[in-house]
Every structure is written in structure tokens, then in C-alpha cells.
Amino acid sequence: MKYGVAIFPSKKLQDLANSYRKRYDPHYALIPPHVTLKGPFEATDNRIKEIASKLEEITSKVKPFSLNVLKVSSFQPVNNTIYFKIEMTNELETLHNSLHGEDFFNEKSEFSFVPHITIGQQLSNDEHSDVYGQLRMLDLRHEEQVDRVHLLYQLENGSWTVYETFRLGEE
Amino acid sequence: MKYGVAIFPSKKLQDLANSYRKRYDPHYALIPPHVTLKGPFEATDNRIKEIASKLEEITSKVKPFSLNVLKVSSFQPVNNTIYFKIEMTNELETLHNSLHGEDFFNEKSEFSFVPHITIGQQLSNDEHSDVYGQLRMLDLRHEEQVDRVHLLYQLENGSWTVYETFRLGEE
Fold this sequence. Notes:
The structure is a homodimer. Chain A is α+β, with helices and mostly antiparallel strands. Chain A contains four helices and eight strands.
């Protein structure tokens, strides 16, 4: 079974992200707008309790923090994903590192962590320049509090279901 | 903002439900397969913490229980919804009653509670007889444990995001 760990932002920010995802993101119907902390990883069905208890340990040590949306950005030339860029914070870095360290299945991340909310992906080069050209000008500044993260699992159709919520800074 | 309370069954049961929902349920992309404990209700944005704390109180008093799928059934003649019928248990009844009682916004349910997982809805009469005629014969017997319920909120596009998970029988 595939698992992942993510933050779901407020309804306000999700609605804004969805107004773009609807047109530009083929994953629109599979998962609500989110900040990925740990991308899809395989674990056997009965390991979910172990995963959940490790996550509880990790999240209990991180205090609620401010999530700042900075601007629209793009991963080009690596790929044609367009996203809301989120300001890096100590808390995001700690969560990401803990979820990719020795205590959490020791699955190191191949990429450096760029916190973001995807709003478009799998775009052709032309679509990408067109859409990015329009959206990069947007004044998106937005700040909100994050006080929880979610553990999800993936169904056969590719969609994600929340298994559990973890409140930050709580034992 | 609109809220709801639901149980998400195991991946196995969700995958099975989705194999039908994909074709017969227009809500397929808006929410994973679920058992509704309290249907959509309005509350102001800042009431969510109050709602969550009431839910915590309610769910702490109910022990984990067995969820039994009995058969495929239909709400006809009330409407053309086809569903997996779930066996009523004391725990389901207690959860439902607590979520519709005086302690929980005092919003009485108009309908008697029939626990179910919808697999088809908004079907024409012909589709309904056709699909129900085929599915009512299925031997669906399935049993699993339920140890958590979820509080969700609805986005502007109609999809649902999990706000919080509550484990049954835990303070």
C-alpha cells in the first residue's frame, strides 16, 4: 500500500489553488490541494500502525507554525510543474528531515525540499509558458497557521484517503 | 462553511466501492467511499474548534466496533441511490444519535438512520433497475474493524477535505 504525509491548507487557500488546478492539474480530483511533506512510499498494510506511531512522535516535537505563500513559481527546466511557493521555515525543514531520516524508514529524499502547493502539472511546454507567464505576476501574499499534518493512503484509482491527523506540538 | 462526519472503510472496501462508484456515482471524485454519520451541516469558520472538541467527547465514549457489509440495497422508491448496506450496531446508533442530539448543535435528523456506503446515485429509473438488478445478487459479506471517524469540510468545488481524525474510545 502507498502512503504519504501532507499538510492541507485552509479552505480559503485550497479554493484558490483549486481554481487553477481545475484547469491545469490532472491530479485535481485525486487529492485536495496540499503541501507534500513525504511523497508516496510503499509499506505493507499492517505497518500503518507503526508508521502512525512514528509520525506521532515526530509531530509532537514540532510546534504549530506560520505558512507563508510567497508567489507562483515553476520547477522548469526540471519539469513543467507550476506551484504556490511556500516560505521555508524551521518547522517545515524539521518535519521534512524527520520524515526522510533514519527514524522513518530511512528513505532519503532524492531532491532538496522546496515546500509548495502544486497548481499545474504535466503541461506541454507551450501551455507551461502561457500559464506561467500569466500567473507569475499574481500578488499572492497569504499567511496562515498550520497546526496539523495528515497521514494518507492511496486507493487503486490513484485517489488519496486520510488515515489519521496529527496535531503539532501535542503528545 | 459546510462540515460532515464520516467513517472511511479499509482500502479493500473502498477499492470495491469505487469500482462501482466510478460508473454510477457522480460524487466519485469529490470524496472517497464512506459511511456518513452526519451529513453536510453549516457552521461558521471559527466554530470548527468547538465542533472538534464536541466530537472528541462523543468519540471517546464509543469503543471500536465491527463494520459488517450485508448486501447491496437501494433507497427506492425514495430515491435511486444504490448502496452497500451496513449492519446497524449499538456503536453506529450511539454515534449517529450523539451527532444529532442536543449536545451537537441540536440538528435533528429528518430520516431514520440507515448506515450505508453509496455506490450509485442520481441514476435514471432505467439505469437504476438495470444496475440494481445486477448488483443485488452479489455476495458481499465482509467484516472489518472501525476504530476512527473523521471530521471533514467542503471546498467550493464540492469536494471534501479531512480536518481531523478521532480515534474511538480514546480520551
